[in-house]
Amino acid sequence: MIFILCVSILISVVGLSHVLSFGHICIRSLYALMLVLPVYGLFYFIFLVLKLPFYYFLSLILILSILISWLAFKKLDRRIQMKEWNFKRYLPFILLVLIVNILFFDKCYHYGGWDAIAIWELHGKYLTLENQWILLFSDDLDWSHPDYPLYYPLILAFFWKSLNEWSPIVPMLYNYVIFLGFFIVFYFGRLSFHGQLIGLLFCIFLGSDVNFISIVSSQLADSTLSFTILLSIYLFLEINDNQTNAFILLGIISSSSFWVKNEGVVFFLVFSLAIVIFSGFTKAQKFKYFIGAIPLLIVLILFKISIPISNDITSSVGTDSFAKFMSFDRYLIIFKGLINILVTKYFYIILIVTMLFFTKPKSQIILVLAVLASILVGYRVVYLITPNDLEWHINTSINRLIHQLYPSLLLCACYTLQSSDLSQFKIISSNSKDNE
Amino acid sequence: MTKDKILRFVSKVLGGMFFISLVCYNLVVIHKVICTENDVDEIIKLLKPVEKYDSVYKKINFENLVTSKPELFVYAQFALAPIVLNTKGGIESGPLLILQDCDSISKCVKSQGSIDENTNKSIGIKYEFRSKQFLK
Questions:
Q1: Distance separating alpha carbons of residues A306 and A127, to the nearest angstrom
Q2: Contacts B88 to A, Cβ<8 Å
Q3: What are the pLDDT digits (tens) for A391-407?
């Protein structure tokens, strides 16, 4: 069964990557993958709720993958010629991947960190059980956070179900793909030589960041969220008026962030607000963005309504929230926590922010930076009203919260460094696409 | 052969050797991480026999465990799912499984027994984890 599943996913990704109409084939494949996995996860969930056999689900995705590849074949008006693939161009990336592979797998271990087992993999295991999956929302499960969305657990579940065992290899490989995805965005994100050189520099930054590798190898959903935020921002920066389907894709990818983790809601709200007010998109483009976002928005609303579990943060909002809000000491603790984490684990951020002060980023980059800063402020508000011990809450989560925004901040720095050739990019992009 | 050609040949050979050694080292690291079992795998194996009792017992009392080593609880909770572990003292039938001396784990002392389905008591299965450093 795992063979059918993998082949279906592969065919769908290859097909979709040819339907999409922007960027390098590796980038398009990443977007296709991040589109296929949550959608198939949702289909799996629907089949689970309807108590339909697993092979029905497999048959559906096989049919879907054939349909997608047929669509792609219809659209494909040129054959991929291997002669045109310049392997020397990819050699630095292959070498980099081989080195960061070692760093990733050296830090990786079965089932990952505390949250990975207590929350995501536990949810995934329940979702493989046809008759008992509802127990996932039991109050008796400690540290399981049953209100968390099911993007990552559903992906684990359908892979585990097709393997017929709860193999630790599945979360490990999934997170490896996400890990590799970060490097692909930085390296293949810009098609010009100058762009790839700077991209390679940022890949080295990312690959040399032990803290970043540690978090991704811990197999938490934070890396998936970080990746969806990065993909949304990359697409936002690259999108142009000719790419009609890219606006829908942007809506889907940005909305998938809140199906990964609750923090994704903050990102989606701030990002959507920025798109509506400041992006300069036309009404039709904004409409397409929201058309893309609506399906997952409906799924999230249905999930939150039908699962009567309140979030520990939202349920704690009460009479003492205002007093907490006005407490200067809490602001001080949060500020200290932030500075402490930046100095000890995110020194690159200090460098980037310093660099951005001395450069003149494009207006789009400034908008993205404002979005990232607003998300950070949103997280701080959550700290202010948390029902948990503030210091404990900060110590256990701030590293992962910054991790969610860190690659996007690096991307902004990457664009700013090469802003001089931004205007040339779109011409090069369209030319290079023809050469693939 | 000119000096230039020799240098080019040597650099290609060295580069190739570096590349192959990098690939080989990758395979070694990946093999190691796949094959290295850790405490979670150990506890999954230890608790596997309990799964068959899930139709009788939906809850297991782990209150001893939770006070001293929460990691062990989380691993056990994952290993035993869909059996819900109860740390809130809500079990009526007496503890099915007690993990003692929870700062450490060495061996699983398992005594087989049968479950009295009428009274839901006298479990006859007891796991004790002793004396080995559990996590590092």
A1: 16
A2: 140
A3: 888 888 889 999 999 99
CA distance A56 to chain B (A): 24
A41-45, A112-116, A250-254: which range is least confident on average? A112-116
CA max distance for chain A: 69
User: Strand ranges (DSSP E) for B13-95?
Assistant: 59-61, 84-86
d(CA B116, CA A212): 52
Q: Between chains, do A135 and B88 touch, taking CB under 8 Å as contact?
A: no
Residue A330 CB contacts under 8 Å (≥ 6 apart), including other chains: A324, A383, A384, A390
**Does B41 sit within 8 Å of A140, measured CB to CB?**
no
Tokens 């059918």 correspond to A4
Q: Which residues make beta-bridge pairs with B104?
A: B133
Is the ipTM higher than 0.85? The answer is no
Burial class (CB in 10 A: 0-12, 13-18, 19+), A102: middle
Helix axes A390-417, A193-207, angle to 10 degrees: 160
In this predicted structure, the answer to whether residue A231 has a pLDDT above a threshold of 90 is: yes
Name the amino acid, one letter, at A231: L
Closest CA to A160 of A190, A123, A193, A197: A123
Q: Do B82 and A172 touch (CB under 8 A)?
A: no
- What is the reported pTM? 0.84
Query: Tokens 């199906």 — which residue?
Result: A259
Spatial distance between the Cα atoms of A301 and A294, rounded to a whole number of angstroms: 10
B63, B74, B136: best to mutate for the A interface, most A CBs within 10 A: B74
Q: Reply yes or no: is the peptide bond before residue B82 cis, omega within 30 of 0.
A: yes
Instruction: Select from B31, B78, B92 the residue whose CB has the most chain A CBs within 10 Å, as the one to mutate to test that interface.
Output: B78
Q: How far apart are the first and last CA of chain A?
A: 33
CA distance A84 to A352: 36
